[in-house]
Amino acid sequence: MLEIVLLVAGSLLQLLGLAGSILPVLAGPPLNFLGIILLCLARGWDTFSRPLLFSLLTLVVISVLVDYFLPIRGAKKYGSTRWGAWGAFFGMLIGVFFFPPFGLIIGALTGAIIGELLAGKSESAALRAGWGVLLGYFVSLIIRLIASGLMTFFYFQALF
């Protein structure tokens, strides 16, 4: 009975992880990895090799880090000053808590623009930094989708 509960919970975590790759309110790849751990608990730790589990964990860590730093990096690539980069960072943090589920991207975009305006940049330069935040966010979205998709594939392949 415990095995069935773990397998159902793991399967639900896979679906939530895929949804979380798109919706910023859910941590997609970490949920997928937790589902894989539940599968290992249910079926034994030999379900996946240790190198694969370590690789998937590394992928999760990278996807989480990229999720926070790519929008800031995108802003810098499009001419943002430190003010804009810090504005994007703090806007992202504020947005996550006060404007879920899309507060992460709205906060980073708004923070970058406000930061650039405070730095004395023109409106067009501030909007350009905001565009960089959006591009960085969409690249991180693709990375999250790839990570979650891979883990979901491995999960259901091992399940069946």
Number of domains: 1
Shape annotation: elongated
* Integer average pLDDT: 89
The biggest sheet, with number of strands, parallel, antiparallel or mixed sense and barrel status, is: none
The helix-and-strand class reads mainly alpha
Element layout with pairings:
Blueprint: H1 2-22, H2 28-43, H3 50-77, H4 82-98, H5 103-118, H6 123-159
Helix pairs in contact: 1-2, 1-6, 2-6, 3-4, 3-6, 4-5, 5-6
What does this structure look like?
84% of the residues lie in helices and 0% in strands. The chain has one domain (2-159). It has helices at residues 2-22, 28-43, 50-77, 82-98, 103-118, 123-159. With 160 residues, the protein is mainly α. The chain is built from six helices and no strands.
Essential attributes:
160 residues, mainly alpha, elongated
Structure at a glance:
With 160 residues, the chain is mostly helical. It contains six helices and no strands.
